[in-house]
């Protein structure tokens, strides 16, 4: 299986929220059910503090904690590319996946009837198009592709599996890599 994933370069993210808004508009989600979140983080100690932003959604993990706890078999991992999806017809809204995911990716509906999350714009990818968050990112901070090709994609720095503000990847093995710069 080729696992597709995100490549994120914190140095290129200006925190404009274009990716989050594009995701919300394209997927017709409400403000409460944002599938993508942009947050700000700091590292270091005064006066040598460095700030960066993170744009995160579902990481289509190698070992999805959400899928492991779903009692309705509503969460599946596609064999061909590892995209993790929620079947809205199977989801019963129990929200166990919400508690299990360390990245806050599954988002409950306001009426609690079901949970939804980023599907990596699976239909767009099947049509040869980039996910809307990637397409909309003005700084080129968000990219995507097969994980095993990301070393060549990164270009501007070594790849890291985590960065300040990101939960320990050892648990679910998320399909995202970061461009690591000093
Ligand atoms: Fe599941 Fe969360 Fe991993 Fe997405 S990020 S596959 S919702 S555990």
Describe what is shown at a glance:
This protein is 19% helix and 22% strand. With 182 residues, the chain is α+β, with helices and mostly antiparallel strands.
Describe this protein's structure.
With about 180 residues, this protein is of the alpha+beta class. The protein has six helices and ten strands, in the order E-H-E-E-H-E-E-H-E-E-H-H-E-H-E-E. Strands 8-1-10-9 form a four-stranded mixed β-sheet. A two-stranded antiparallel sheet has the order 2-3. A two-stranded antiparallel ribbon has the order 4-5. A hairpin with a 6-residue loop joins strand 6 and strand 7. It is globular. About 35% of the residues are buried. The model has no long low-confidence stretch (mean pLDDT about 95). It binds iron/sulfur cluster. The site of iron/sulfur cluster has 15 residues, from helix 2.
Task: List the defining traits of the structure above.
binds iron/sulfur cluster; 182 residues; four-stranded mixed β-sheet; alpha+beta; globular
Strand order of the largest sheet: 8-1-10-9
N→C terminal distance:
33 Å
How large is the radius of gyration? 16 Å
Poorly predicted runs of 5 or more residues: none
Shape: globular
User: How does the helix and strand content classify structurally?
Assistant: alpha+beta
| Bound ions, cofactors and other small molecules, one mention each | iron/sulfur cluster
Give the number of DSSP strands: 10
Number of helices: 6
Q: Main sheet?
A: 4 strands, mixed
Arithmetic mean pLDDT: 94
Topology order in helix (H) and strand (E) letters = EHEEHEEHEEHHEHEE
Strand content: 15-25%
What helical percentage do the residues reach?
10-25%
